[in-house]
Amino acid sequence: MDIRRIAINNVTEIIEISIFQTDYKGQVAKRINEKMPLATVKGFRKGAVPKDLVEKQYGRGIKQEEVKKVVDLALERFIQTERLNLLGTPLAVEKEIFNWEMEELTFQFEIGLAPNFELDLDAPTNVVKYIVTADDKMIDGQITRIQKQFGTPVSQEIVAENSDVKGTFSNQEKGIDNQITITLDIFKEKATAQKFIGKKVGDVVTVNTKGLFEDDHQLMDFLKVNHDDVHGLEVDVDFTIESINETKPAELNQELFDKLFGEGNVASLSELKSKIKEDAEAQFAEQAEQKLMDDVINALIENTKFDLPDAFLKKWLQTVGEKKLSPAEAEAEYAKSEKGLRFQMIEGRALAQSDIKINFEDLKSFTTRSIRQQMAQFGQANPTPEEVEGIVARVLSNQEEVKRLSQEVMKDKVFELIKQKANPTTKEVTYDQFVAAMYGE
User: Fold this and answer.
1) Which domain holds residue 224?
2) Which of 65, 128, 317, 411 is deepest in the core (most CB within 10 A)?
3) pLDDT tens digit string along 296-338?
4) Taking the alpha carbons of 331, 332, 335, 338 in that order, is the dihedral positive or negative?
5) Residue 440 has what pLDDT?
């Protein structure tokens, strides 16, 4: 047997395996002998078929099976011996004509190699860590929405300036079909709101999307238009009125406070504002952390240049999975996954370059947080410490779970290192400013 590597480029190679009769002949002969007592050929009793006829009938198939076993085992051992770090799995190079009668049989496998590259976590970046604050305008707006949400609807015959109008925005060509309740103050121009005044249930009001709202991004909320389509969108949409109500705002009293936050937790308007600010900024902090994560990843990918075996991986994607992909589908799938693959390479290199370790306390703390989050999702916001500790103990008694959770903890630690090394600039912004930064505008 002879095995060699043939470089195509720095991340793609061919493994060529040549085998000879001595590599498989003995096993083929053994299989033929095992087959003889079971062989059936017309004109001969079972078990009495001449060996040459058994070889003629079954020999080719047995030979191909045994050759495949030899080649597959040789390929696996060669990859291990050479310590090849593969992306994907080897792809057999198909030949239009293959002569199984040759004394030397040669097989080729294309492989994609993980790239070797330098990672500089200390390279300067322009990453910003946003501290998003809830300003007075936002808090007052939230209080108004709460009063309307818990207010009393009063049916109206016609639309007035203070009406809540339920209806459906539609445009068949653009696939817009969104039922929503609106107020007339959402529109940028007063002339647009005036189109609704005096209308009744069943009436249709046509508006144009260009300049419909103060911010084009609001088209995403009210019309369910994709972000990529909102800028420059200039089409007529119909709003079909389905109901008209005037909402009598709920009073800002203890009954409303208790309904919102539980009995006795909020007792005044100032406390309500503080609670809204606290909850909103906690929510904003999660969104800001996600943006920071995305920005750090993008900066690392931009600053860390290396080749991937693109052509090989696109071919490989066509062969994996239950449904075989066309070249075009594989191209699209690769485009979606390339960024994640690049960060996976960077993450692995960051781990290799660091001295990060995890201990049992790290694992226990991570598991405890995860359990509490899961319980909160199912309505158990305040479980007792004993309940949580019991679940954590059961989870950590499962070795498979410990292995999985250890990987999660390690990934968290790696990212914390990456984030720290990125040295982001801190910037305090309002939520509106944060949204503009998030979409790069």
Assistant:
1) 152-248
2) 317
3) 999 999 999 999 999 999 999 999 888 889 999 999 999 999 9
4) negative
5) 66
Q: Cβ neighbours of residue 405 under 8 Å, at least 6 residues apart?
A: 363, 366, 367, 370, 395, 396
Token pair 């419909």: residue: 212
pTM (2 decimals)? Answer: 0.71
Q: Does 348 lie in the same domain as 296?
A: yes
Cα–Cα dist 102/92, whole Å: 19
Tens of pLDDT, residue by residue over 207-226, are: 999 999 988 889 999 999 88
Structure confidence at residue 358 (pLDDT): 87
| Burial of residue 297, with CB atoms counted within 10 A of its CB: 0-12 exposed, 13-18 middle, 19 or more buried | buried
Residue 233 shares a structural domain with residue 318: no
Structure-token pair, residue 174? 């653009």
Measure the CA–CA gap between 425 and 431, rounded to whole angstroms.
18
